[in-house]
TrEMBL record:
Entry protein name: NADH dehydrogenase [ubiquinone] 1 beta subcomplex subunit 9
Family per record: Belongs to the complex I LYR family.
Originating species: Oedothorax gibbosus
Gene Ontology biological-process annotations: mitochondrial electron transport, NADH to ubiquinone
Function: Accessory subunit of the mitochondrial membrane respiratory chain NADH dehydrogenase (Complex I), that is believed to be not involved in catalysis. Complex I functions in the transfer of electrons from NADH to the respiratory chain. The immediate electron acceptor for the enzyme is believed to be ubiquinone.
Membrane topology field: Peripheral membrane protein
Length: 148
């Protein structure tokens, strides 16, 4: 099973050989997804890739395994699709960053008549805000105001 596949610039620890192989496999299959519009063609070529990986899964010599991994990386780089498909909500996708998250403090500026429509929610919200302030002050102390 593959570990999380973070972008290379976000890795903070060394990856094992099996994690690198898993990453190569996933990127190769995703590259095939970009190359074929028909799901049948894509699945056929994805199975061919899986068969190629399964051929070498029992290699115990780490030098041979590393050489195979490097060859696979070079082959993938050489055969990379010129316009890879991306998930729409992933970075680079057409919907990435379109959803705006409204910050919680906006609700502090609701009109009292608007708040009156949801009395239980706003009562609980005020209680939780007070608990948060108390935890903050307990941990960091009361804020000091500079009155110049």
């Amino acid at each position: 099973m593959c570990m999380s596949l973070l972008p290379k610039h976000l890795h903070t620890t060394l990856r094992t050989h099996s994690q690198k192989v898993c990453s190569l496999y996933k990127r190769a299959v995703r590259n095939e997804w970009s190359c074929y519009d028909s799901p049948w063609e894509y699945r056929y070529h994805a199975r061919l890739i899986r068969a190629r990986f399964d051929e070498h899964k029992d290699i115990k010599d780490l030098r041979k395994a590393k050489a195979l991994l490097m060859a696979g990386e070079n082959e993938l780089e050489k055969n990379m699709h010129y316009q890879p498909r991306q998930f729409s909500y992933s970075p680079g996708g057409i919907n990435y960053g379109r959803t705006v998250s409204v910050p919680d403090w906006v609700m502090d500026y609701w009109h009292p008549l608007e708040k009156a429509r949801y009395p239980e929610y706003f009562a609980r919200r005020e209680q939780r805000k007070q608990e948060y302030i108390e935890r903050w002050e307990k941990k960091y102390g009361k804020p000091q105001h500079d009155d110049h």
